[in-house]
TrEMBL record:
It comes from the Bacteria. This is ClpXP adapter protein SpxH. GO terms for cellular component: cytoplasm. Interacts with Spx. It comes from Metasolibacillus meyeri. InterPro entries: Adapter_SpxH, Thioredoxin-like_sf. The keyword Cytoplasm applies. The lineage of its organism: Bacteria, Bacillati, Bacillota, Bacilli, Bacillales. Its main location: cytoplasm.
């Protein structure tokens, strides 16, 4: 645990009754950021009554202003589909303009396609299709994807990344409700118990876990999960998790999506 530092807290106040705030720095194209999402999900299920959170996108990029102009041309039909490493981050920010939950749904679906390699997630057309898949308001998303607001929101994330001197993704910065206290920056990816311990230290009290949802309820909330995630959440062996997931596949509740590296289980559309 050498990669932990104290940093100054931002001026924004914490939400009422949420004594801790997490700044979660990710690059949506980085596999470790997908793993970080699993950690956050378990923290939410057990302890979200203690903390609020926000993703900070830390993708390296160049020529953002030029790219924004090219997107506008693409939207107006003056240019063919474009690809660029910054586009996924701008698309996430466009989705977030429809609300935090909309942004999270979009990010999860984008990472699903990245993991399964079912779409070119650097493509403007593919990113727009993902917005439709997660049932965003498409008129609003189309406008926001090419807007200054989405590009500016992404630029703000890059500014926060520099301001907090985050040099590694994923990273989490923990802040408590005392604005005079420094935040705790944890660079890299650790076991769940490490983040649980830090949250307890920030609260300065014993943590009270929320009861876990049933497996069916879990899929309604997150819709796509790995076998390892299910095993971790319920603290069971992966073989046991696999058996329970296969039961639900036979019941036509979930479907299995497999690549050479990973198996994802996704809630079937007709069960939502």
């Amino acid at each position: 645990m050498n990669n932990i530092q104290m940093i100054s807290q931002p001026t924004a106040s914490l939400p009422i009754n949420k004594p801790v705030e997490l700044y979660i720095f990710i690059d949506p194209l980085c596999p470790n950021s997908f793993a970080m999402q699993s950690v956050l999900r378990k923290l939410q299920l057990e302890y979200e009554h203690y903390f609020s959170w926000r993703y900070v996108l830390s993708t390296e990029l160049t020529s953002l202003n030029c790219l924004s102009n090219r997107i506008k041309g693409c939207l107006s039909g003056d240019e063919l589909d474009i690809t660029h490493p910054a586009l996924p981050s701008i698309a996430i920010k466009a989705a977030e303009l429809q609300g935090k939950r909309a942004g999270s749904r979009y990010l999860s679906k984008l990472q699903e396609h990245a993991t399964l390699q079912t779409k070119n997630i650097l493509s403007h057309v593919a990113l727009t299709e993902i917005a439709s898949e997660v049932q965003l308001d498409m008129n609003e998303f189309t406008v926001d994807f090419g807007s200054k607001e989405a590009a500016h929101a992404f630029q703000c994330d890059l500014y926060i990344t520099r301001e907090m001197e985050v040099n590694e993704v994923p990273s989490i910065v923990f802040f408590n409700e005392n604005v005079e206290d420094e935040g705790l920056k944890v660079g890299g990816l650790y076991d769940y118990e490490v983040y649980e311990h830090i949250l307890r230290e920030m609260i300065q009290d014993q943590l009270v876990r929320q009861p876990l949802p049933t497996l069916d309820e879990l899929f309604i909330r997150f819709q796509t999960l790995t076998t390892a995630e299910v095993a971790s959440i319920y603290q069971i062996a992966e073989q046991v998790a696999e058996r329970e997931l296969k039961k639900r596949m036979l019941q036509q509740k979930v479907e299995r999506l497999v690549t050479d590296d990973i198996a994802l289980w996704r809630l079937k559309a007709n069960t939502i």
